[in-house]
Design goal:
5-stranded antiparallel β-sheet; DNA-binding; 7 helices; homodimer; 247 residues; 4-stranded antiparallel β-sheet; alpha+beta
DNA sequence: CGCAGCCTTGACCATTATCAACGCTGGTGG
DNA sequence: CCACCAGCGTTGATAATGGTCAAGGCTGCG
């Protein structure tokens, strides 16, 4: 089983939620995730209980059923979060990118597993300590609730996708979603990177890898997207994609 | 458009979360939903901002896109929560039964609509006031977070169902889920009531109404379930159902 | 250079959707 | 009071979307 490399967090380093692209433009703290609501004072407290964790491709962050003791904030790379059925069928619940949290909304045990899709760096801290800290900092508590609300809304959108959308609508929605997440992080929304395999995209979209491949090919043939790197597509016609996604 | 009947809450009446079956066995408060964690003092404060709302079949509790000003706690009846696509395709996000909350984990706007599946009574209170109160009562805040965690876990289970399960596995999982919810409310887990139409069950399970009907017939023919009323089934072989549900 | 892993494409198949007919039930109005 | 009708449920026949199986190509790494 792969083991994570653990480095002690340098003091005074970036706060949880910091990303490689640097400090947040709004609050000056090096955090994309919580800056809008959380004071620098709170951020300093968070710093004290953080350690940096780096993982290689395929290494495990959390395992379904394990005690939910830790929270991660991704600072670089990407992560797959998934559930397995007894016979090996896999549903990927979501992909995490820099700025995203893992494990905040868990009960006593993680209800999912999470693995690095590519080399990952993350800030890890105790979930208990984080929740205690949130109790003392209403601004952090608010950010936490807002975060879980966003996550739930995304889950509901994904239920609509899985339950009612066609293959073309699913793939189009996926590209739009990735593009929007780029925009939120300050990356180019026209260039969508797909760090996951076709099989992983399929397990996220409720399809097979062949159907994902065929559908991407169809979008290429229609000149809606263009392959701009081995793992990236350029969106040529965002309007068409918006129509194809169904909503 | 149907209009809800609004009655002023009688003082000192049941707290939000109360159900018709009476007070909670643990804390004495008439609440199924928050009793495990919330003090009677907090409950009294909640009482003050509550009004009772009754709805007839088909009436609307909240509409997707409306300002998320109110929270509901269902005390009797059942509710469908759903999202629509532009062309009318519907994904039902979940069904609510007595003790369930609606609208707690919302942003500025509701991301879904909700309608009464049958006559409903509920306690309604201001979301803002509720969140403010939660800020002052750590026990309530904790209950709130726990609730949103549970909801998220349920959403993730449902994603697995929608993305990866067969029709038989979906219907079996659905029956098991309803049975478990019965047990949690103190009802008989062997008798599952289906207050929704086949079409509504289908829109929840990502199937068509015909497939739901056929699958229930197959379960009847296999003597796994038995129709015990026009809208209820008895689970004859819970073990078989457990195998059929896939996990 | 060769191999492993991933991607693409084709041919065929199966699960589930669609279309259709008909039965049941409960509510309404003659 | 009974007949009719609307809405729901069941079942059958057929169709289509996406899955399965298979072959071959590309890329990167040892």
């Amino acid at each position: 089983m792969p083991q994570a490399t653990v480095l002690k967090f340098p003091d005074p380093g970036p706060c949880p939620g910091a990303v490689e692209s640097g400090p947040c433009a709004n609050c000056g703290a090096r955090s994309l995730s919580v800056c809008a609501r959380v004071t620098n004072d709170t951020l300093r407290s968070l710093n004290d209980l953080t350690e940096v964790v780096t993982l290689k491709t395929g290494e495990t962050l959390v395992r379904e059923g394990d005690a939910a003791g830790q929270v991660y904030n991704i600072t670089s790379g990407s992560v797959r979060v998934y559930k397995l059925m007894a016979d090996g069928r896999r549903q990927i619940i979501g992909f995490l990118f820099p700025g995203d949290f893992l494990g905040l909304g868990s009960g006593d045990e993680y209800a999912f597993s999470a693995e690095a899709l590519e080399p990952v760096t993350s800030c890890r801290f105790s979930r208990r300590a984080y929740l205690d800290l949130a109790n003392q900092h209403p601004d952090l508590e608010g950010a936490l609730l807002e975060r879980s609300t966003t996550e739930l809304a995304a889950a509901q959108d994904h239920m609509l996708l899985l339950g009612r959308k066609t293959a073309m609508e699913r793939v189009s929605s996926f590209l739009i979603d990735l593009s929007r997440r780029n925009a939120r992080r300050g990356d180019d929304p026209a260039i969508v990177r797909l760090p996951m395999t076709r099989g992983e995209a399929a397990d996220f979209l409720g399809l097979t890898l062949e159907t994902v491949s065929r559908t991407l090919s169809a979008l290429k043939n229609r000149r809606v997207i263009r392959q701009s790197a081995s793992d990236a597509y350029e969106i040529l016609d965002a309007d068409a994609l918006g129509v194809l996604c169904g909503d």
